[in-house]
Amino acid sequence: MPELPEVEALRVFLDDRLVGKEIARVLPLAISVLKTYDPPLSALDGTTVTSVARHGKFLDIEAGGLHLCTHLARAGWLRWKDSFPAAPPRPGKGPLALRLVTTDGDGFDLTEMGTKKRLSVHLVHDPMEVPGIARLGPDPLADAFDRDAFAALLAGERRQIKGALRDQSLIAGIGNAYSDEILHVAKMSPFKRTADLREDDVTRLYTALRTTLEDAVDRSSGVEAGKLKAEKKTGMRVHGRAGEACPVCGDTVLEVSFSDSALQYCPTCQTGGKPLADRRLSKFLK
């Protein structure tokens, strides 16, 4: 799933290529993708793109006073095209979900692999009309998001830190992958309770959060849209690397599986050498 660093890189990529261009047409190609119907997508025809913004994991393309807001979900992606075939694609065929074409002939496709269709597109007058954007917490890379602001958010929490980091209404943009990476850098168990965090724990976790996300954004800067997924994977130290050696201590990276996801961690770096039991069981080691 694209998270804050990849979506930020896509924002910069589109800002360089779309702003100032006129939209020729926007074609929905999967019945599940479009979540709003008024105004219709045809309202974008002939409008000029004025900005590209990011809200957490949402992309926001503004044109003609309207906002085309996209969430790529778990299996969605954006693919830039310098040109398109003359004949429009047939709806419902393959992974294509939506196509935006400019009057210059370039543009992008939104695609989604798999059978679970969660990619969403909203066309609205104000981004706050999108429920997923309206509920977002603060952006962790914003200037105002300092250590004290982070501590204030955690002060009212009574849950495992892994879940808190992933909660979009608490902090916007962090998902399963970067929460694993942040906790590895912070040398902290994903099962540690927020209520058990000491002042130095909060400071260490905040520093890990900022440096991990900033480093990921820097790595993604200037990378073509089609190569961002590969760049994300190569930058991971523990996430998606179960069974491999931890790059810090050499211990084997372990995994805890859930019904629809999994987390990875290093026992030496994060849990005092103790493996965490599967959360599907009634007991686990802290």
TrEMBL record:
Alphabetical list of InterPro entries matching this protein: FPG_cat, FPG_N, H2TH_FPG, Ribosomal_uS13-like_H2TH, Znf_DNA_glyclase/AP_lyase, Znf_FPG/IleRS
Domain FPG-type: 237-271
Reactions accelerated catalytically: Hydrolysis of DNA containing ring-opened 7-methylguanine residues, releasing 2,6-diamino-4-hydroxy-5-(N-methyl)formamidopyrimidine
SMART domains: Fapy_DNA_glyco, H2TH
Keywords from the named record: DNA damage, DNA repair, DNA-binding, Glycosidase, Hydrolase, Lyase, Metal-binding, Multifunctional enzyme, Zinc, Zinc-finger
Coiled-coil stretches: none
SUPFAM superfamilies linked to this entry: Glucocorticoid receptor-like (DNA-binding domain), N-terminal domain of MutM-like DNA repair proteins, S13-like H2TH domain
Formamidopyrimidine-DNA glycosylase catalytic domain boundaries: 2-119
GO-annotated molecular function: DNA binding; lyase activity; oxidized purine nucleobase lesion DNA N-glycosylase activity; zinc ion binding
Co-factor requirement: Zn(2+)
Pfam families per UniProt: Fapy_DNA_glyco (PF01149), H2TH (PF06831), zf-FPG_IleRS (PF06827)
An individual GO BP term: DNA repair
Family (UniProt): Belongs to the FPG family.
Official protein name in the record: Fpg/Nei family DNA glycosylase
Species this protein is from: Streptomyces californicus
